[in-house]
Input
Amino acid sequence: MDTWVIVLIVVVAVLLLAALALALARRRNGAGAARKREEAREHLQQAQLRGVQAEREQALAEEQAARARRERAEVEERSRLAEQEAAERAATAQEHASAAEELRAKAEKLAPGLADEQGRRSPDGGASRL
Output
């Protein structure tokens, strides 16, 4: 056989192998593209589900924060009212103490020394607290 025939056979064989490889690559790309499309659809579905979950969680978080703010405001209001009531009671106690002191002063003017005798005994008639 002549060399040119051998070269021609080798060239034709290489061309056939190249054509076969090209056909297989196209088929593989076609199947790969379909697989990638399907995978992309799945990712989109997952993204949509996660988006809905995120919105739901965000709404729950906002609701919880609002509830906490309401509760804090209620506690602050109760505290303010309790402090106001305590201040009113302290003022009333001060008024009573002032009135008691005025009455002691009047009693001392009316009967000097009587306050000292009463001071030695407790208000219930027992011994003094000294």
